[in-house]
Amino acid sequence: MSKIALVDDDRNILTSVSMTLEAEGFDVETYNDGLAALEAFNKKMPDLAVLDIKMPRMDGMELLQRIRQKTQMPVIFLTSKDDEIDEVLGLRMGADDYVKKPFSQRLLVERIRSLLRRQEAVDRDTDGTGPETKVMERGNLSMDPLRHSVSWKGKDVSLTVTEFLLLQALAQRPGFVKSRDQLMDVAYDDQVYVDDRTIDSHIKRLRKKMRTADSDFAAIETLYGIGYRYNEE
After folding, report:
1. Is the pTM of this model over 0.90?
2. Mutual orientation of helices 196-213 and 161-171 as an angle, nearest 10°?
3. Among residues 99, 115, 167, 191, which one has the fewest Cβ atoms lying within 10 Å of its Cβ?
4. Three-state DSSP state, 105
């Protein structure tokens, strides 16, 4: 049973969403502010967290920063109806997905299941004989799917599951263009719709992380109006 942390200062959301998630078979812990959630996470991390952005004592953005210092577990943001800045900033800070308020609880359940399936696929113990599980070397890049590890010029880079899958998809075929739709298919289940901005934000976050290992990193090229391409260095 996957443990889901639901963090929101709206008690109606905590009550209704937790009831829905529990009915779907999840173990749910609720918190009405970021600080309370962080104190609990320091003792034991959940399998996935759903965070509101605007909360007292500690908002969702700061909580996400604290989480990312310890783990790459999947995180979904709940964002305001018309606040695109929150969505983009959240993704660039390392959230895996976002859902706009007011939201369909069925949609949220689908997003949660999608992220958990991807995380389980990464964590699953396999024999490592398939091509998708072997260490991939592309010039300065090394990716180990079984260990969910990435290094660039020998320096480790910590990526979320979404970022890892996007980099893996691009690096598998250097020089070939991947459209945003193709990258959406890699990072999300078919039944989960995301827009172009979500992929763009993940790519920007991915580039930023790679540049912590090498300030001159430029292997991911943007082809405006088309998609992205990995150029082996």
Report:
1. no
2. 90
3. 191
4. helix
